[in-house]
Amino acid sequence: MHPPLIVGNWKMYKTASEGREFIRDFLKLYTAKSSVDVAIAPPFTAIHSLHEALQSSPITLAAQNVFCEHEGAFTGEVSPPMLKDLGCTSVILGHSERRQHFGEDNDLINRKVHSALSHQLRPILCVGELLREREAGQTNAVIEKQLLEGLKDISAEHMGQMTIAYEPVWAIGTGKAATVDQATEVHTLIGAVLENTWGTKRETIRIVYGGSVNPDNADSLFQSPQINGALVGKACLNPDSFVKIIGSAHRSLN
Ligand code: 13P
User: Fold this and answer.
1) Which of 38, 135, 224, 235 is close enough to 184 for a disulfide, judged by CB 3.0 to 4.6 Å?
2) Is the C-beta atom of 64 inside 6 A of ligand 1?
3) Residue 132 reports pLDDT greater than 90
4) Measured in whole angstroms, how far is the alpha carbon of residue 198 from the centre of its chain?
5) For a substitution probing ligand 1, which of 6, 209, 234, 245 has the most ligand atoms within 8 Å of its CB?
């Protein structure tokens, strides 16, 4: 099994200089633990300065999005080689905020996953249901569709590069995280879909949870062997709470 993975998704917060300041404070509090992988996903504009600030630490850089073409006349877009060149090793794809505000569908997300993989950028594919879908008993069907369409034609070999993030939309930014049981149930389903469709062994892929993870609920979430880390939004913007969540992941291994 891989070590747990904690990813801080800064969303559209922090300028490059605010990002540098954050890393200075964060590194004073953070003691690297080889048992937990940590990544930060800043806005594009802060990637370069974070790459410099993180030089001597094991923390890796993720992007929050990428376009599916290598280069071309695509005003405003950023390509996988551009992110690789800046030091990113992974990229968040299919985040519900991209699906909701920017009209990204499973087909576009799938093209982005293929493109990222072909440039050795590891995708963190987000899936998750809306509140009304959960209330209508459609959670499993929604998650399965997002996986099958988002990962269409991905080779079994490439599945080893993937991370899946279960982010129920109703839990994002609401302060109302999924319960351990709710998350465990969906993570188990995700594992089964990957195994049945790609033959992916559960222990070879990380399935992380996202949605109102904070220092108070992280310990209990990480107790579930199905929850292999977290994609953290609001609570990662503060160095102290981000460090505490990483500490919870570390403690869960003992
Ligand atoms: P919050 O932790 O702010 O709920 O955001 C979760 C998220 O969207 C991470 O990608």
Assistant:
1) 224
2) no
3) yes
4) 21
5) 234
pTM: 0.97
For residues 95 and 168, give the distance between their C-alpha atoms in angstroms, rounded to a whole number: 10
Rounded Cα distance, 34 and 184, in Å: 25
Supply the pLDDT for residue 32. Answer: 78
**Domain containing residue 80: CATH number:** 3.20.20.70
C-beta 173 within 6 A of ligand 1: yes
Segments forming the whole domain that contains residue 136: 5-251
Closest C-alpha to ligand 1, atom 7: 233
Name the residue at shortest CA distance from atom 1 of ligand 1: 233
Ligand 1, atom nearest to 214 Cα: 2
Residue 233 CA: distances (Å) to CA of 91, 153, 249: 15, 30, 16
Angle between helices 106-118 and 139-150 (to 10 degrees): 40
Q: For residue 77, is pLDDT > 80?
A: yes
At residue 254, the pLDDT reads 80
CA 182, 184, 186, 188 dihedral sign is negative
Q: How far is CA 126 from CA 28, 93, 97, 209, in A?
A: 31, 6, 10, 9
Helix (H, G, I), strand (E, B), or coil: what is residue 91? Answer: strand
What's the confidence (pLDDT) of residue 31?
87
Task: Judge whether residue 97 has pLDDT over 80.
Answer: yes
Q: How many domains, in total, are found in the chain?
A: 1
How far CA 57 is from CA of 40, 46, 197, 230, in Å, comes to: 12, 17, 37, 20
User: Ligand 1 center to residue 54 CA distance, Å?
Assistant: 23
